[in-house]
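Support reply, case 0932

Customer input (verbatim):
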Amino acid sequence: MSCNKIVVGMSGGVDSAVAALLLKRQGYEVVGLFMKNWEDDDEADGSCPAKQDFMDVLAVADKIGIEVEAVNFAKEYKERVFAYFLREYQAGRTPNPDVLCNAEIKFKAFLDHALALGAEKIATGHYAKVRERFGQFELLKAEDGGKDQSYFLHRLNQAQLSRAMFPLGELYKREVREIAREAGLPVYAKKDSTGICFIGERPFREFLERYLPKTPGDMVTPEGKVMGQHQGLAYHTLGQRQGLGIGGQGEPWFVAAKDMEHNRLIVVQGHGHPLLLKDKLSAADLSWVSGEAPHTEWVYAAKTRYRQADAPCAITRVDAESCDIEFAQPQWAVTPGQSVVLYDSDICLGGGVIQ
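Our regenerated output:
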């Protein structure tokens, strides 16, 4: 037991509430910190209900008996995360803002703020684990494989991990809800938030149209047959099936590629179409948890999207700027802008942005 001060990032959800509760029970001096990362239009359409979330944080803090502070990182978020998000979409890629938010906001702006408050460490409700071995900090998968969030944390470095705690790493989601219910936390049954905070529950396309102008063009087959019109390449992502408006006989249609030069969306029929499968990729903007690139030619596992099963692979080339990865089996809809994250068993090694 210790009186070290831990600042817990609290979002208003059950995970961060239980993280704070567990640390308090372990004898730490716990302070809750509520981060407001978006404020452009949340009052107008109620799509990012920060006010309600903050009320939930206050109710939980009252129940646990901890102090709470609210801090506004909207400016940092806009500069470091949202500007990148729009640039990537304009370039025809599909970025992952959650990865950037963790690296730039939660474990940078928030960490700096917490240290200024005199905290020893920060904690979040992420499902992941951190372990110190031989003076190195390792990021590990959570016990609950279905909820593991190491994918979103893969850009954390040694300095950030040395200050991070993930109290839910050993728990399953159902156990977390049960702990919250038994402790009488008012958020024990609160629905998990989905999607990107600044978009909230509204349709993604509708949100993008506010920031990126429509640029209509043709939807074509690989052979060049026009199948319909798109309103802008930015509004589509590889592997997308919904919202194409291509009817007709046979198998469903999918987005296979973007022809940026001619503003054309390449569409194919059938989930197993060869253009939707890739057995290799290149990644740039690399970030390795240990600070050093993994060995080439070893067998690793990789995810090219969050909800994907681990895919056996090898790094065939790596330098400071980029790496090439080859898969044992072709991967479906490998999407530029998304992150490829590498694992050695349950250790998250880091990764990069798919090119």
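We compared this against your earlier run and they match. Two observations from our side: The longest strand covers residues 277-288. Helices lie at 14-25, 42-45, 50-64, 74-90, 97-116, 158-162, 173-182, 204-211. Please reopen the case if you see a mismatch on your end.
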